[in-house]
């Protein structure tokens, strides 16, 4: 299966963010980076599959080390996760954003109330 294009990924991301009520036009530059990372991840994953998931390679001294493609995929996964958090595209990030939208915590509200009384 061919990798999706950056444009298609961005379009889907914007649509998902609108459905989650988290989209703002100001996020477009971050969405561009996220879409590019996902596109790269899909392309490299396709190459990894074509290489029959070759996850290690032999070193000069006869041992084995992680193949560069695996390291690249791991790095892209971490970056994609970080950007998906910022864009509120996963359950954990969405939950955090919901808490922030609610306003002050109970402790902050109590402290604020105490300050007004004095």
**What letter string, H or E per element, gives the SSE order?**
HHEEHHH
The Cα radius of gyration reads: 21 Å
Could you give the count of β-strands? 2
Strand order of the largest sheet: 1-2
Main sheet properties: 2 strands, antiparallel
> How many domains comprise the coordinates?
1
Query: Helix count, per DSSP?
Result: 5
Strand content: 5-15%
- CA-to-CA gap between the ends? 66 Å
**Helicity level, as a percent range?**
55-70%
Shape: elongated
Which class best fits the helix and strand makeup? mainly alpha
Mean pLDDT: 87
Low-confidence stretches at least 5 residues in length (pLDDT < 50)?
none
Describe the structure.
This protein has five helices and two strands. By secondary structure, the protein is mainly α. The protein has one domain. The chain has a two-stranded antiparallel ribbon. It is elongated and about 75 Å long. The mean pLDDT is 87.
Offer a quick outline of the entry:
The chain has helices at 6-19, 28-50, 68-86, 91-102, 106-117, and strands spanning 56-58, 64-66. The chain has 118 residues and is mainly alpha-helical. It has one domain (6-117).
SSE topology:
Elements: H1 6-19, H2 28-50, E1 56-58, E2 64-66, H3 68-86, H4 91-102, H5 106-117
Antiparallel strand pairs: 1-2
Helix pairs in contact: 1-2, 2-3
Q: What keyword list fits this structure?
A:
118 residues, mainly alpha, two-stranded antiparallel ribbon
């Amino acid at each position: 299966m061919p990798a999706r294009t950056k444009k298609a990924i961005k379009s889907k991301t914007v649509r998902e963010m609108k459905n989650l009520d988290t989209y703002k036009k100001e996020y477009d530059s971050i969405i561009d980076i996220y879409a590019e990372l996902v596109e790269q991840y899909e392309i490299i994953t396709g190459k990894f599959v074509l290489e029959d998931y070759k996850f290690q390679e032999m070193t000069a001294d006869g041992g084995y080390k992680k193949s560069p493609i695996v390291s690249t995929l791991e790095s892209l996964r971490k970056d994609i996760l970080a950007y998906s958090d910022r864009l509120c595209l996963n359950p954990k990030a969405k939950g955090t954003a919901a808490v922030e939208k609610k306003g002050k915590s109970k402790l902050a509200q109590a402290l604020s109330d105490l300050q007004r009384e004095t």
